[in-house]
Amino acid sequence: MLTSTGPVLATLLIIGIAASLGIYPIKKLIRVQEAKHELKHGSPGFFRTMSGWIIIAIWLAATWFFASIVGDWWATGDLSSAIGRSVRRLELLLRILAALADD
Amino acid sequence: MTESVAIAQTDLLCTNCAGQCVFDPASGTLTCLRCTSEHRIAIDPDADPSAEQHYHPDLPHTEQPRFTQNRPYQCETCGGEVVFLGHSISESCPYCNGNLIEQSSDESYVTLGVIPFALSDERAQINAQGWVARRWAAPSDLDAIVSRSVVAGIYVPFWTFDSEEAVDYTVKYKVRSGKRTYTRSYSAFMRTKFDDLLMPASPHVTPLIRDGILHEFEPGNLRPFEPAYLAGFAAEFHHQSVREGLKHNAADKALLLRNRIKKHSGKSSITKVSYATDTTGIKYRRILLPVWILHYSYQGKPMKVVTCGLRGRTFGERPFSTVKLFAFAAVVSSAVTAFGFIWGALQLF
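The joint structure predicted for all components is written out below.
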C-alpha cells in the first residue's frame, strides 16, 4: 500500500510544482508562438522574442525526468534503485539541453 | 518652433462649399465633410520622396529639432486659438473643427516623405479587436475593455537607414571530441549592407510593434509631404535628430549584424561573437507612416494595439491571466508527467 501511495502522491506533487513553475515558460511559449506567426521573421523583434525559449525545454525536461523516476519507483517499488537508474537518463537529458542551448 | 514654420489650413477647405475636408483612405482624396466632394491631391511631379539623404555628422540636418512645447496659432477660418502641443504637427480647431497642419522648411526636421493611409478606421477597429480576441491566456474581461476603446489614426515619424559595413569578426564555438568539449575560435572578414532599416522616431510605436505591423516597406509608395494627407489625422514630427536616430538604431543593427556573422562563419554551437565594423555610406529618410492606435488600460497599466494603416497588420501589448497560464501549465505538466511516468514504469531507458 505504501509503495503505491508514495508514487501517486509524488506524481501529484510533481504536477503541482511543474504547473506552478510552468507559468513563466507557458507565457514564453505563447510569446514565441505569437512571434512565429505575427512578427517579421529575421527582424530584431523576432530574434529578441525567440531568445530564451530554452526555458521551455528545461521545464518540460525536468518534469519528464522526475516523473520517470516516480514511474520506475511505482513499477519496481524501490525508490533508491529508481534514482540510481535515472542517472543515465539525466546525463542524456543534459546533453540534449546543452545542444539545444548552443543552437 | 523656428520662424520657418507655416500653417496649412485654407488649402484644406472645400473649393465647392468652403467646408472642412479630411483625407479619405478609401479614395485617397481630400473629401469634404459637408458636400462630400472629392478633391484630388496634387503633388509635385518632379519630387522624389523615395530619395535618400546622405548622412554627414557635421551638417545641420543632424541637429536636434528646435521647438517650443506649446505653439498657439490663430485659426484662419474662425479666429479661434489653436495650440500645437509637443511634437504634434496636425491639430483641429476646437471651435470650427478646421484642420491645421504645421509645415516647416527647417532642415533639421522637415519630413521627406509620407505614405498616406489606405485602411479605414472601421477596418482598423475590427483588426485591433480581432487581434485581442485571438490572444491565448488573456484575461476574460479583456475583450470588453478593449471594445470600449476606439482607434485613432496618426502619422508616426520613422527613419529609414542604409549603411555599408566592413566587418572584422571572431567567433568562439564549441566542438566535441569523444566525451570532451573544446572551445575554438574563428576569425574572418565580411562585407554586408543594410537597406531601409525602419526605426520608429516616436514612443507611439516600439521596435517590437514595428516588427509586428511593418513586414514590408516599399519606398515607391512614398509621396512628397503634402498637408492634405494629414488632414483629419494626428501627426508628429521626429522626436530625434539624425544622430539620435542612428543611436537608437544601433541595438537593432548590432543584433542583425551578430546573426549575419554567425551565418557567415558557417560554425555551429557559437558561444561568443566579437567584431569591429567600419560603417560607411550612411543614408537616411525622415518619413511619416500611417498607423491606427487603440489605447486601453488594464488594471491601471496603459497598453496599446497598433494596426498598420497600409495593409492592416496588427500587433500590440496585451496582459496575461495568471489563472489561465496556471491552467495551461497544469494541462501540459499533467501530459508530460504522464509521459515520464509511463517511460519510467516501462523502464525504457
